[in-house]
Amino acid sequence: MMEHLLIDLDKTLLEINFDEFLKAYFRSLMPKLKKIIVDKDPLNILTVSVDYMINEKNGELNIEKFYKKFTELSKIDEEKSKEVFLEFYINDFPKLGSFGKPAKNGRETVLKLIESGYKVVLATNAIFPEIAILERMRWANVNDIDFELITTMENMHFAKPHPEYYLEILEKIKAKSDDVLMIGDDLEMDILPANKIGIKTLQYGVDIKDISEIVNIIKIQ
Prior knowledge:
By secondary structure, the protein is α/β, with parallel strands linked by helices. Helix content is 47%, strand content 11%. The longest helix has 17 residues, at 18-34.
């Protein structure tokens, strides 16, 4: 019996032009990094570090992998690096909220699912720290919802599009693939890797046009 619902954040519960958001993200972050990385390309270091975090499967948490590579390439002390990123996420990242807005019926649907007894996981890609994910949840107006799990850099060892990301979620919520439905917009990130481990999926924008359709599909009264 299906008990758990995994729901993506970006372009599912949060309407966002992710390409434009990322451009603005880098424009805002790069000046901060250039203050501490003066003889190397900070954008390249950031890109390589994120790629390492996503694709290296060495048993470390995503945040550990990221700072391990970032420190190695930048030659900047890890604590100093963390200070710079934290200051950015506290003071600058919230200003990017204009790029996102709540998806129609998103909040109401999640609350109805939870009230009906389903356990809902916010299965957003774990390549951002918790502080950034909580901020984006505010943009989606779901920040005060009691999710069963919110995946972040700090609590996950894997990231999308790897099937291991979904296996780790199953382990954390103590569920079998048959007990879970994944809802997300991205075929490569959300649908195919979840299908690989036997999780049923609904592709937002393809299988469903409005997030509220989930209620009818799983026959909530």
